Amino acid sequence: MKIIKKVFSGRGKFIIIGFLVILLGFTGYFFFFKKEKEPELQTVPVEKGMIISSVSASGQVLSVNIMSANTQASGIIKTVYVKDGDYVNKGNKILEIDLDFQGEQKNSQAWSSYLSAKNNLKSAEATQYSLQADMFGKWDIFKKLAESGEYENDDGAPRTDMRTLPEFHIPEDEWLAAEAKYKNQKSVIAQAKIAINSAWLTYIQTSPIITAPMDGVITSLMYAEGMGIGTLDTGNTTSNQKIATIKTEGMPIVSVNLSEIDVSRVKLEQKATVVLDSIPDKTFVGKVIGVDRIGQTTSGVTQYPAIIQLDSSSNEILPNMTVTVSIIIDKKNNVLLVPSSVIQNRKGQNYVSVLVNGKPQSVPVETGLSSDTQTEVVSGLNEGDLVINGVISSIDSQKNGASPFGSSMGGMMRMSK
Asked: Where does 89-178 show beta strands of DSSP type E?
């Protein structure tokens, strides 16, 4: 009895209390902290819906439905007759230039060339009349010879034996030669007319008055009165200088580059959605109107240009703007869909992990169309099946082996000594 009292008195009492605390601590640790939860599987149900398979490509807006008003003149802008946004008809004045010396000289030379081309045409036409008269004269001589009694029977039938003689063939050849010269002169006249047109266009290019080359709306007019144009007084005014552009009605066209993998899937008339980097809040719709299947190779990479025409236009769409295009290859509605990330391929067979009675099970599937995020399942799954698309690992915070009691356990151990 004295021994028991001694144990429960003084330092012995602290030893027993410390032992009990340690025992309770380890028991709680193993039951409440050390026990890890089972991994929680993330699942998504198989659902029916629409899937769109598409090809993405980038490119730019082409310069279409516009024509430049150019000049080869040089001098100082005297008068500007239009401004951006004005509608003009072909031939309307855009601006007028006070030509410098070189500009006047070039304009005079162009006018001289035009007059010379007109004279050449008149000369060619006069020559044609002479050749025509010569042809008819030689034809008349040959006709009378062929109808004479020497080369024709009384019943009008030709004397074939006599018509093989040189006396018969020489007048015939002279007539045929005259006919050939007359016909050739028609080509000379056609060429002279083209030369006149070319000379006139050159004169227009050097003219001090710049006119609209077609009907449309003036855009990109970059000249004002008093500005210089051309290389003044140096004679170097041969190159065309753009004054403005004329925009006509029409749908914009974009060009994109397809990869080797995608080009075989793209066909004419396929629909496409187009987004411009400069107009990100709008999406335009168009269709494929051309595909270059020869391709262009640069630095070992082959790309195949494709042309897409938009169904609508906008004043915000300008040439050379960057575009991103999605060409719709195929689409299906009311089909089974799963996230593309859950499809696993082993030795050519596609599999999906499905949750069956709380356990994961690998199921072979046959797939169809694929989009950026979803894949069509043709067979192997049913609507409502839960496919596994991830795992949530949930374990206690003492995974790294730290004591759940911190420093207080060490203190108690020291107290129990």
From this structure: 93-99
386-410 in b/e form (b: 16+ CB < 10 A) is bbbeeeeeeeeeeeeeeeebeeebe
Report the distance separating Cα 102 and Cα 235, nearest Å: 5
Question: CB–CB of 57/272 below 8 Å?
Answer: no
Rounded to an integer, what distance in angstroms lies between the CA atom of residue 303 and that of residue 306? 10
Please, are residues 336 and 367 in contact by the beta-carbon 8 Å criterion?
Answer: no
Exposed / middle / buried, residue 283 (Cβ in 10 Å: 0-12, 13-18, 19+): exposed
Long-range contacts of 296-300 (CB under 8 A, 24+ apart): none
pTM for this structure?
Answer: 0.59
CATH fold of the domain at 41-50+333-392: 2.40.420
Q: What DSSP string runs through 165-199?
A: SHHHHHHHHHHHHHHHHHHHHHHHHHHHHHHHHHH
pLDDT tens digit at each of 417 positions of the chain: 444 555 445 555 556 666 666 666 666 555 555 555 556 788 889 999 999 889 999 999 998 788 899 999 999 999 999 999 999 999 999 999 999 999 999 999 999 999 999 999 999 999 999 999 999 999 988 888 887 878 777 777 887 778 888 888 888 889 999 999 999 999 999 999 999 999 999 999 999 999 999 999 999 998 999 999 986 545 444 568 899 999 888 899 999 999 999 999 999 999 999 999 999 899 999 999 999 999 999 898 999 999 999 999 888 888 899 999 999 999 899 999 999 889 999 988 999 999 888 888 899 999 998 888 899 999 999 999 999 887 665 544 444 444 444 444 444 333 333
The C-alpha angle with vertex 236 and arms to 233 and 242, in degrees rounded to 5, equals 105
Q: What is the CATH number of domain 69-244?
A: 1.10.287
Q: Which CATH architecture has domain 55-64+248-331?
A: Beta Barrel (2.40)
